[in-house]
Automatic annotation (TrEMBL):
Source species taxonomy: Archaea, Methanobacteriati, Thermoplasmatota, Thermoplasmata, Thermoplasmatales
Name recorded for this polypeptide: Shikimate dehydrogenase substrate binding N-terminal domain-containing protein
SUPFAM superfamilies: Aminoacid dehydrogenase-like, N-terminal domain (SSF53223), NAD(P)-binding Rossmann-fold domains (SSF51735)
A biological-process GO annotation: shikimate metabolic process
GO molecular function: NADP binding; shikimate 3-dehydrogenase (NADP+) activity
Pfam families named in the record: Shikimate_dh_N
Organism: Acidiplasma cupricumulans
Length: 264
C-alpha cells in the first residue's frame, strides 16, 4: 500500500485526511492519508520514516519553513517563498514544493479577484504571508504592505518591501488578506478591528474553518466582498493529488467532500 500524510502541530483542524481517503476509495487507489501531530524534536525520525515508507507528505504550521533543511531538492517557487507545504518522495529523494502558491492563485482566479493596480495589505509575516506576498509580486503589478508586530525582524525586512505596525494601519487598502491563524476554529477573534477595513474593499482570509471568520464578518459589515480559505485549500489539494498520485479531480467533487467534512 502507498501512503501519504500531513505533518504539523496541531493537525486536528485539517479536513485533508477525510477528503483524500474518500477520493482514494472512490478511485480504487490502494493508499491511505494520515494526519500526524508531530513534535519538533521528532521531525528527523519522521523524515527517515518518510524516505522509506511514504509517497510524500503535506506540511502545515509550524513546520513549513523548518522542513526545508531536511529536503534534497526545493523547486524555485518554494525556494523563493522560503516555505514548503508539499514533499514528494522520488526513490528516497525528497523534493519540496509550495502547493499553497498554486492554491492561492487558483482562489484569486476562481473568485474573480484581480490584484493588478491595487494597494494590498497582508496581515502577518509567517510562511503563509510569504507565499501570498511572493505570489502577488510574481504575477501582478500591485503595491503590497505587510502588517507585523516586529518591525525590526531582519528576516522580514530582507524579504518584504513594506512593513507596517498594526497600530499604524488605516482603512486605505483595496484588498486585505489575513495570513495569521487568528480566527481559526475555535478562536472567534479577528486580527484587526473593523475600523481598519476600507468600505467596499475586498477581504480575503486564508482560514477555511470557520468559513466565515470574525474578520470576514467585520468586512461584510463594511460592504466588502469576501473570500474565505476554502478555494485555496481545494486548489492546493488538487495540486497535491496531481504531484503525488498523478490524479486529476474535479473541483466540485473535491468541494463536496470538503463540505461533508466541515458540516459533520
Amino acid at each position: 500500500m502507498n501512503a501519504s500524510a500531513l505533518i504539523g502541530k496541531p493537525v486536528t483542524h485539517s479536513a485533508g485526511q477525510y477528503i483524500y481517503n474518500k477520493i482514494f476509495k472512490k478511485n480504487n487507489i490502494n493508499s491511505i492519508y494520515l494526519s500526524i501531530d508531530l513534535d519538533m524534536e521528532n521531525i528527523p525520525v519522521f523524515i527517515r520514516f518518510a524516505r522509506e515508507n511514504l509517497l510524500g507528505f503535506n506540511v502545515t504550521a509550524p513546520y513549513k519553513e523548518v522542513i526545508l533543511k531536511y529536503l534534497d531538492v526545493i523547486d524555485d517557487t518554494a525556494s523563493g517563498i522560503g516555505a514548503v507545504n508539499l514533499v514528494k518522495n522520488c526513490s528516497g529523494k525528497l523534493y519540496g514544493y509550495n502547493a499553497d502558491y498554486n492554491g492561492f492563485l487558483f482562489s484569486l482566479k476562481h473568485n474573480k479577484v484581480d490584484p493588478n493596480g491595487k494597494k494590498i495589505l497582508i496581515l502577518g509575516t509567517g510562511g503563509t504571508a510569504r507565499m501570498v506576498y511572493y505570489a502577488l509580486k510574481s504575477n501582478y503589478k500591485c503595491t503590497v504592505f505587510n502588517a507585523t508586530r516586529n518591525l525590526e525582524n531582519k528576516k522580514n525586512k530582507n524579504f518584504f518591501d513594506n512593513l507596517i505596525a498594526y497600530d499604524e494601519l488605516m482603512p486605505e487598502y483595496d484588498i486585505i488578506i489575513n495570513c495569521t491563524p487568528v480566527g481559526t476554529f475555535p478562536d472567534i477573534k479577528s486580527p484587526i478591528d473593523g475600523s481598519k477595513i476600507m468600505h467596499k474593499s475586498t477581504a480575503i482570509d486564508m482560514i477555511y474553518n470557520p468559513q466565515k471568520t470574525k474578520f470576514l464578518a467585520l468586512a461584510e459589515n463594511k460592504g466588502c466582498s469576501t473570500v474565505n480559505g476554502v478555494d485555496l485549500f481545494i486548489g492546493q489539494g488538487l495540486e497535491t493529488l496531481k504531484k503525488l498520485y498523478n490524479l486529476s479531480i474535479d473541483y466540485q467533487e473535491f468541494k463536496l467532500l470538503f463540505n461533508e467534512k466541515i458540516i459533520k
